[in-house]
Amino acid sequence: MGNSGSAVKVCTDHQGGINWLSLSPDGQRLLTGSEDGTARLWSTADSQCHGHFQGHESYITFCHLENEAAFTCSADHTIRKWDVVTGQCLAIYRGHTSIVNRILVAKDYLFSGSYDRTARCWSVDKEKQIQEFRGHRNCVLTLAHYSSRDVLEEEEEEEEEEERVSRDLLVTGSTDCTVKVWWVSSGRCYQTLLGHTGAVLCLILDAPNRELFSGSTDYTIRTWNIVTGEQLKVFKEHQGSVICLELVNRHLYSGSADRTVKCWLVDTGERIQTYKAHKHSVSTLKYHAGILFTGSGDACARAFNSKSGVLQKIFRGHKFIINCIQIHNELLYTASHDGTLRIWDIRGICKRNKRRLKKERSVQGRSSQKGSLSRLFNNKVGCMVQQENGE
């Protein structure tokens, strides 16, 4: 294991815990949303704060950053849109009657989930509520979005003629133990996915493979067919709530309150690796270049070799739980409830991992070549034996 890392920069501008950290699609900016009721915009080029968004009347629960605009949601029941250049509030979306805990931006839509038991859809540009999704018996914690064009065959689309105007669907996970799939155009519930016996905390969607993964306080991860609603597999080895999920190359990584991350083969349901060393719940995780980065309630971030499970580095310095991590240009960004954004240089472990992967590929290549020569030799011997036997 490598030496414990020290941050190359510590940003202490917030006056309260940071609840979320979002990276812009172009990688040029980061957005932090805080318990102090403000959001801050950071440049990934110089790690300086270039924007301070003030206006919410309570703490910010979640934030989302596009290239041109920033979005924040709050315990004040509202969502706000901000100009990333001027810092001006461009829109306030009002309608929820309780804490808004999650937002999602897709196309021209803004989706939100709230403790008021509803999810809502808004026009990004007009501050106008387009749709309300009502049916959960408790708060909506997590959201996902996809288009039926990504998953439905033509004949299946014909069956949903009334929904052909808009093929967008919203997926919601709730503390009522259910996952629901909704048609955005009508607000109609398309599927209710039943099986969990605890709150649904996280969702990961794999639309091309028609699969949805949900993690719950019932200690399980479940896989669903998002077209039929059929439950496909149940992953049962965790001994605590499943808090976060990451899907990479048909490998599913799950972080849990049992202080571990597990890696599963999606196609078989087999658990192939367990990543230990955390002293508290695993609150967030991210895969990058063969390395699994985790954030934990023990105030540390960690880097594991994703294949072997070996702990490569511990990043110490935070005082409270790490709520979110992002990676850009071989820098690791960690946001914590201690109010700080810390930036860590991960070039060393990325470089070592690349060398290791290159070496493994080289060994596999030589092994494959030896296998080919061996098969060629055996084939020649077989032919000679056949000739000698007059076959």
TrEMBL record:
Pfam families, per database record: WD40
Keywords: Repeat, WD repeat
SMART domains the record matches: WD40
PROSITE patterns noted in UniProt: WD_REPEATS_1, WD_REPEATS_2, WD_REPEATS_REGION
WD repeats: 11-43, 93-132, 169-192, 193-234, 235-274, 315-347
InterPro entries, per the entry: Quino_amine_DH_bsu (IPR011044), WD40/YVTN_repeat-like_dom_sf (IPR015943), WD40_PAC1 (IPR020472), WD40_repeat_CS (IPR019775), WD40_repeat_dom_sf (IPR036322), WD40_rpt (IPR001680), WDR86-like (IPR044715)
Cited PANTHER family: PTHR44489, WD REPEAT DOMAIN 86 (PTHR44489:SF11)
Protein name (record): WDR86 protein
Organism: Neodrepanis coruscans
Lineage, opening ranks: Eukaryota, Metazoa, Chordata, Craniata, Vertebrata
